[in-house]
Write a structure and sequence with these properties.
The protein is mainly beta. It has helices at residues 2-21, 229-233, 477-481; strands spanning 34-36, 41-45, 50-53, 56-58, 72-80, 93-94, 103-106, 112-122, 128-138, 144-151, 156-166, 169-173, 188-194, 204-209, 212-215, 243-249, 259-264, 269-273, 314-319, 324-329, 341-342, 358-364, 371-377, 383-389, 396-401, 414-417, 423-428, 431-436, 441-444, 454-460, 486-492, 501-506, 508-509, 514-515, 519-524, 526-533. It contains three helices and 36 strands.
Length: 536
């Protein structure tokens, strides 16, 4: 009984002590630190630009906390937005080992999107306040216009680039593949680009030349002799021939193509049927039986529908030995997809597919859901244009243009056909002309002003390929309009070095038969081909 009384006394005493001690503590909530001036997004060029952040930190007493305040510590960290490790198995990278308030550090990261964290810690309480920002690191090879050139009298193959860092910033870069392992090549032929949303194979980029064709890594642009197209895309290595034209046939699937097709400098054509799991090109298809010896040579052009999404399963070639059009068709017959077949004339023919003329040029467009234009020349040097519609599963004769009111058209060396208007552009020397196919009227493009020592080396419209831009909701109208701008590549022969190349971009006025210059870039070699490296 005595023990119970003692316990009760101690409990009452301690309870009273608690009530007596209540006034000795301040139970007010601690005010928070606020962080201002943190950007939501920082866009930088990897290994070139700096990541710069200059935050303003406000204390609970509304005073600005400066870097020399000993009570606070500042930290910056970064990680991949999609997760994973950045370097050496590390998920996080400390950007601020010196614990400075302001961040100014080289963006020494591969092209990707990262999440950055800035934090302020009160050393006295251990309380930490943080703010988040994104860092988009681009590389000179990540996105933009790939520009394939011939350099100097030896025509050394060189790739320059107009790198798109952001919607507001573009940076020219020169000779980007030489330090990345591209073998010494001559006579640039073109850029092969097959964009796909399939994870395997991923986007394919080829540099084609008269001395070899090499695949380049889609992320780093690195390559070497082992990336020769013979090693990576052909079942049987070819001897004495080089791929100089490469394209894909895109069906209704927005993720990838039905097939890839190519032509070599000796006039052989090859087909890689992707939709059937075809891993590589096989034997030449310019034959009437699979695997047989080639029976004729084809021109270095392939006509396909470029409508988006794809609405075709055919491709058009030209037999230069017999001067006729021959076709390739996708189907269920494996043997049938490894041959070419002469295109028959329809009953109501506008012209004969057995043209009996030299093919000067052929171009695929989106006009009329996939019109292919072919420029042909007879023995007297007179030129005409055939329009062949490639939509669906056939070869439909849609247009024939003869007796063209086009000055010096027989001397033209560069051509480009628009995909929205019935316009053909052609160049003679340093002059560019617009020919309206509907009215048979030609307009000199006098505002494409080139000097007396300059010549046009390329005319082109860079149509985005449907695979990598299937989701158009994320594309701005301005960005999408770029594919319908006339690109004019020219070279100034009076340049003191090998960098006399210029590339101009000209929006086309479909009402007034004219163009206006939006912008231009200089410092390239002799421009042979331009392809936009799609990433957005």
């Amino acid at each position: 009984m005595k023990i119970k009384v003692i316990i009760l006394f101690l409990f009452v005493f301690s309870l009273c002590a608690c009530f007596d001690d209540k006034g000795n503590y301040d139970y007010r909530e601690m005010a928070e630190i606020t962080i201002e001036n943190i950007p939501e997004l920082i866009e930088v060029l990897g290994s070139s630009d700096h990541i710069v952040v200059k935050p303003k930190v406000i204390s609970p007493s509304k005073e600005e906390i400066t870097e020399d305040n000993p009570n606070f510590e500042f930290n910056y960290k970064i990680e991949l937005k999609a997760g994973g490790t950045i370097v050496s198995g590390q998920r996080w990278v400390d950007l601020n080992p010196m614990k400075k308030l302001y961040l100014d550090t080289l963006a020494a990261f591969v092209a990707n999107t990262y999440v950055g964290w800035f934090s302020v810690m009160d050393k006295r309480s251990g309380v930490q306040t943080s703010a988040m920002f994104e860092v988009k690191v681009a590389s000179p090879t990540y996105e933009g216009w790939m520009i394939l050139c011939d350099e100097g009298a030896q025509k050394r193959v060189r790739m320059d680039m107009i790198s798109v860092i952001s919607a507001e910033r573009t940076v020219p870069a020169y000779d980007i593949l030489t330090p990345l392992g591209l073998p010494e090549l001559k006579q640039a032929a073109g850029i092969g680009f097959y964009p796909t949303l399939y994870s395997n194979p991923s986007d394919i980029i080829y540099v084609m030349s008269g001395e070899g064709t090499f695949k380049i890594d889609r992320e780093t642009f690195k390559t070497d002799a082992s990336w020769d197209i013979n090693n990576v895309d052909f079942v049987i290595p070819r001897v004495g021939e080089n791929v100089i034209f490469y394209t894909s046939v895109n069906g209704s699937n927005a993720a990838g193509a039905l097939a890839c097709l190519c032509v070599t400098d000796v006039g052989n054509a090859y087909a890689q049927v992707l939709d059937y799991g075809g891993a590589a090109f096989e034997y030449p298809v310019n034959t009437s039986a699979r695997g047989a010896t080639p029976e004729y040579r084809v021109a270095p052009y392939i006509g396909v529908s470029l409508a988006r999404p794809g609405r075709s399963s055919t491709a058009l070639f030209y037999d230069v030995d017999n001067q006729r059009f021959v076709g390739w068709k996708y189907g269920s017959d494996a043997d049938g997809m490894q041959i070419l077949t002469p295109v028959p004339d329809p009953d109501d023919a506008l012209f004969s597919f057995r043209a009996g003329m030299e093919l000067v040029y052929m171009e695929s467009t989106r006009y009329s859901n996939g019109l292919v234009y072919a420029i042909l020349q007879d023995d007297a040097g007179k030129r005409c244009i055939y329009g062949i519609n490639m939509s669906g599963n056939g070869f439909v004769q849609e247009a024939k243009y003869e007796n063209l009111n086009a000055p010096d058209f027989d001397k033209a060396t560069s051509f480009a056909f628009h995909s929205q208007f019935p316009y053909m552009f052609y160049a003679v020397g340093n002059k560019v002309y617009l020919h309206n196919l509907g009215t048979n009227v030609t307009y000199p493009m006098d505002n494409i002003a080139l000097g007396d020592n300059e010549e046009v080396t390329m005319l082109k419209f860079n149509l985005y390929r449907q695979c990598s831009l299937a989701d158009l909701s994320n594309q701005s109208d301005e960005f999408m309009a770029r594919q319908y701008e006339l690109m004019v590549g020219s070279y100034n022969h009076s340049a003191s070095d090998n960098n006399g190349g210029r590339l101009g971009f000209y929006p086309v006025d479909g009402v007034n038969n004219s163009v206006t210059k939006r912008t231009e870039y200089e410092g390239f070699a002799r421009i042979k081909d331009v392809v936009y490296r799609e990433r957005r």
